[in-house]
Amino acid sequence: MCHHIISLSDQEQLVEKLEIFKFQGRDKNGHRVLRIVGKFLSARFLSVDALKNYLEENIFPRLKKKPFSVLYLHTQVQKNENFPGISTLRSIYDVIPIDARDNLQAIYFVHPSLQAKLFLATFGRLHFGSRLYGKLRYIKRIDYLWDHIRRNEVKIPEFVCDHDEDLEGHQILDCGLESDHPRVCGAPFMDSPVTMYSTRCI
Q: Which residues form the CRAL-TRIO domain (predicted)?
């Protein structure tokens, strides 16, 4: 958990700068998409209060009126490095307004690890309920994401594209499926507070 090295307001500004939560595009059903970058949900730098405050002020008010979907990028989330923990996730879930929960249509979970799948299949059902679990859609490759979300409307961070290319060379992890979607190379991603994006995954 965060040791409050920086103030609460500075943490909220960091959430905004990193674009951890951002509305981008729509899915194939016309629902707005809330993109979440899991890699930056680091408990080392962000407290539960900072995340909750940011969500309550900037995100939740925009989720109450119409159906929406969540695009969660799990790429490079490691349990011992930047996983916020079940207690943090549960605390955030508890403050989500009922209207917003009802309006949530699907959660597109990109690059799920085996550990994440096992965790959600067991503790996820227990802590978040089978209704939310039933909305999970595991997406192992970015190319498959476009079957659900409108292409060119969502920005994918460079490090996510890099990981996706690594999977492309490991057929055993990808069931031997290859995509025929064209890609255009973009600028390299730098692991800094300012996220950069690639056009390779659009």
A: 14-165
Q: What are residue 180's phi and psi, to 5 degrees?
A: -105, 10
What's the one-letter identity of residue 26? R
Q: Which residue has the tokens 């390299």?
A: 188
Q: What is the pLDDT of residue 43?
A: 62
Distance of alpha carbon 13 from alpha carbon 27, whole angstroms:
28
| Distance from C-alpha of 73 to C-alpha of 36, rounded to nearest angstrom | 6
Do residues 198 and 157 touch, judged by C-beta distance below 8 A? yes
Query: Strand (E) positions, 55-192?
Result: 68-73, 104-110, 136-139, 156-157
Q: Is pTM, for the whole model, over 0.85?
A: no
Q: Please state, in angstroms and rounded to a whole number, the distance separating the CA atoms of residues 44 and 157.
A: 21
H/E run at residue 116: helix 114-119
- Which of 201, 135, 196, 141 lies closest to 170 in space, CA to CA? 141
Question: For 34-53, how does the pLDDT look when each residue is reduced to its tens digit (9 = 90+)?
Answer: 999 988 887 677 888 999 99
Beta bridge partners of 125: none
Residues 136 and 74 sit within 8 Å (Cβ to Cβ) = no
User: What is d(CA 202, CA 199) in angstroms, rounded to the nearest whole number?
Assistant: 6
